[in-house]
Design brief:
478 residues; alpha/beta; Udp-n-acetylmuramoylalanyl-d-glutamate--2,6- Diaminopimelate Ligase, Chain: A, domain 1; UDP-N-acetylmuramoyl-L-alanine:D-glutamate ligase; Protein-Tyrosine Phosphatase, Chain A; 9-stranded mixed sheet; 6-stranded mixed sheet; 22% strand
Length: 478
């Protein structure tokens, strides 16, 4: 973050510095968790589902925080640097917007029903090959996460890569003015928000708000093999390019191959005929399109295409997105427990089937949330896919995921099948089907909390210690 005095921050957000003598104190980062506070931190006291940040202002101060954004009318602790504002979240958004406007970087905003976090990670790497690039870890993609991402900018930053989620029609439209994107990327329109939005057409309407925010000199990068995404070109005044496997796409992938860890290598073909070899460090053939989006962005930003492609070879994804933990006898645990929808689960299962291991292939699957009326059918289809891929075992976690087991049986699944109540039970059952030679996929929606199961299995099987704590950053939106 740009270093700012507390009196400057108070002026930016329209607040009152309760201790005027503290005006010269300088903040150089923003935190929303008092445990992350320390010298130079501006703590934002936000009301939450389980706790109110105002109850932790004193703790942040005790840890050395420089100051805090607190709601006027709330008791101010005997601590330095409180800035009184009408609404701390509004103040944070105002601060993020001011920092974005002051630094004025190239802004890339990414949305999509799946793939946006990984595309953000790949785009950060590709842009970083030529520009000083900022992007938040994890899924900073909601009303809180977007301004926190902007707040990470330094005066020397040249590019900002932001992720934007949605909880309904109009949500992205409200966040877009904060970002004012130069380039908008849409990765997919899928069945991940149907409980919130009702239909795929409504999902497309919500995601399309991002390309509508582009100025005429902007660029929309669209994963065009998805016809609903390709159709968003009609909703922007900016230029657009499509990426994908189809020969009609502007950016195309040719000669895709997967190694024994299901990591893709391919040749990327640019609109002007340039070709560049690409090798990914992330598992899953679905990441080919995500990588093409990153290359299209980097090329539009003037980054050398070969340098951008080379950067993708070492780019790592955020935690719990097909995070691979190698096992000592050739096996692997794929921790994809951050979130799940039908398309992302299918992609993860395909990656599991493609991994080369000497032992069994086992899927441990939990509920895919927020699917509305399609919930049962979608879970049954996942079970049918497990059967079609010929996996060795399927462990279904939780009553809400039971239709996965039903779908697998109906499709003639011939492997071992177990239904368990929770992650602890799944870990116990898994020991009968996996060893250090196995490939294991753990996948469910975030609320199921199976990241601890994945980390525990990796340890059980002799893999490197895998942390299972909270992912850093603001929890995201779909």
């Amino acid at each position: 973050m740009i270093s700012l005095r507390l009196d400057q921050i108070a002026e930016i957000v329209g607040g009152d510095l309760a201790g005027p003598a503290d005006g010269d104190r300088v903040a150089d980062r923003v935190v929303i968790d008092s445990r992350e506070a320390g010298p130079g931190a501006l703590f934002v006291a936000l009301p939450g589902e389980h706790a109110d940040g105002h109850d932790f202002v004193a703790d942040a101060a005790a840890r050395g925080a420089t100051g805090a954004l607190v709601a006027a009318g709330r008791p101010v602790p005997d601590a330095p640097g409180p800035i009184l504002v009408d609404d701390p979240l509004d103040a944070l958004q105002g601060l993020g917007s001011w920092i974005r406007d002051t630094v004025d970087p190239l802004v890339v905003a990414i949305t999509g029903s799946q793939g946006k976090t990984t595309t953000k990670d790949l785009t950060r790497a590709a842009l970083g090959a030529g520009l000083e690039t900022v992007a938040a870890p994890g899924s900073y993609n909601n009303d809180l996460g977007v301004p926190l991402t902007c707040a990470r900018l330094e005066r020397t930053s040249q590019a900002l890569v932001a992720e934007v989620g949605t909880r309904g029609i109009g949500h992205i439209a409200r966040l877009a003015p904060l970002l004012r994107p130069d380039i908008a990327v849409v990765t997919a329109v899928g069945a991940s928000h149907l409980e919130l939005l009702g239909s795929l057409d409504a999902v497309a309407q919500a995601k399309g708000e991002l390309v509508e925010a582009l100025a005429p000199e902007g660029l929309a990068v669209l994963a065009g093999d998805d016809p609903r995404v390709a159709g968003l070109a009609e909703r922007t005044v900016a230029a657009s390019v499509t990426v994908g496997h189809d020969a009609a796409r502007d950016w195309r992938a040719r000669e895709v191959t997967l190694d024994r860890r299901a990591r893709a290598s391919f040749e990327a073909l640019a609109p002007d005929g340039r070709r560049v070899p690409v090798r990914l460090a992330l598992p899953g053939a679905h990441n080919v399109v995500n990588a093409l989006c990153a290359l299209a962005v980097a090329d539009a930003a003037g980054v050398d295409l070969e340098a951008a492609a080379a950067a993708l070879a070492t780019a790592r994804g955020s935690r719990w997105r097909l995070e691979a933990h190698d096992l000592p006898e050739g096996g692997v645990v794929l921790n994809d427990a951050y979130n799940a929808n039908p398309a992302s689960t299918a992609a993860a299962l395909d990656a599991l089937a493609a991994v080369g291991v000497p032992g069994t292939r086992v899927a441990i699957l939990g509920e895919m949330a927020e699917l509305g009326a399609t919930t049962e059918e979608a879970h049954r289809e996942v079970g049918a896919r497990v059967a079609a891929l010929g996996l060795d075992a399927l462990i279904v976690v939780g009553a809400a995921a039971e239709p996965i087991a039903t779908g697998a049986r109906a499709a003639g699944f011939g492997g071992a099948l177990a239904q368990v109540a929770d992650g602890d039970a799944a870990r116990a059952v898994a020991r009968d089907h996996v060893d250090a030679r196995s490939a294991v996929l753990v996948k469910a929606s975030r609320a199921v909390g199976l990241e601890s199961l994945a980390a525990g299995l990796a340890r059980d099987l002799g893999g490197a210690d895998a942390a299972a704590g909270d992912e850093p950053g603001a929890e995201g939106s779909p």
